[in-house]
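I am going through a labmate's work and have reached the protein record below. What it holds is a sequence and that sequence's fold in token form. Please read both lines and tell me whether the tokens look consistent with the sequence. Do not assume that whoever made the record got everything right. Thanks in advance; the entry in question is below.
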Amino acid sequence: MNEQKKSGFATLIGRPNVGKSTLMNQLIGQKIAITSHKPQTTRNRIQTVYTSEQGQIVFLDTPGIHKAKNRLGEYMVDVAKQTLKEVDVILWLVEPTTFIGAGERHIAGQLSRVRTPVILVINKVDTIRKEEVLGVIDAYRQLLDFAQIIPVSALKGTNKETLIEQIFRYLPYGPMFYDEDTVTDQPMRQIAAELIREKALKLLDEEIPHGIAVYIDLMKQRERGGIWDIEATIVCERDSHKGIIIGRGGAMLKKIGSAARYEIEKQLEAKVNLRLWVKVKKDWRDSDFLMKNFGYDKKEV
């Protein structure tokens, strides 16, 4: 019977680069959010859906909460803060260390103002000894009154079932929001653009990736043969960046393209013909108009 199932919203928050996207992909069992060792990888609120016998959890993976340096940064922080008020349970992901820095204290301050239950998720516990975990729990207990504290490894899937079980505890009974085969509310165009951006983040120098956006110019499946034709533009902020993204004789762009094509083909379960271009839009991260064009609309926060 439907009313015996639980259904609700959970959000993952934390400083950039604590493994939020990796954990969400692990919980869903499929790659939806892009991952990278570079901070501020997630820019929009990504909605993914976990469905089981117990019911349905709609996960919102938000951009990391941090001190904004430009308009794109402000947009990302606004998205994350707004989400805290709209969900049934908050998962706060932290690193497994007893040192609690300014970034973590800033988030604790934000969380102390909301009434939503907070589950502290200590990620990357595979990188420390078991007895050290207790010290981390003690350190964080003094910061905030948590509903639960759960150590996990997003990479290895450790304690994944326990975490899901605890999330369901805080969800209301009610009908499901999505069909049971839905895994994300993101259109495939957006997923394709994000996968291209992920590969660029992984392959390019430290400085450039913050200043790139990707948009899809064309995405169409051929009537015969089922091959997808995708044309996309990588936008950067400087002419010098454009040269680096393209690489000598187009080598870097080719690398980004073939790595992205492989991932997109897995998602679409079909062959993909991917063509990439690079354009320069100076200081686009401080332009509301260009940000909106690249999918970061302030009005939607």
The two ends are 35 Å apart (CA to CA). The first helix runs from residue 20 to 28. Residues 33-44 have pLDDT under 50 and may be disordered.
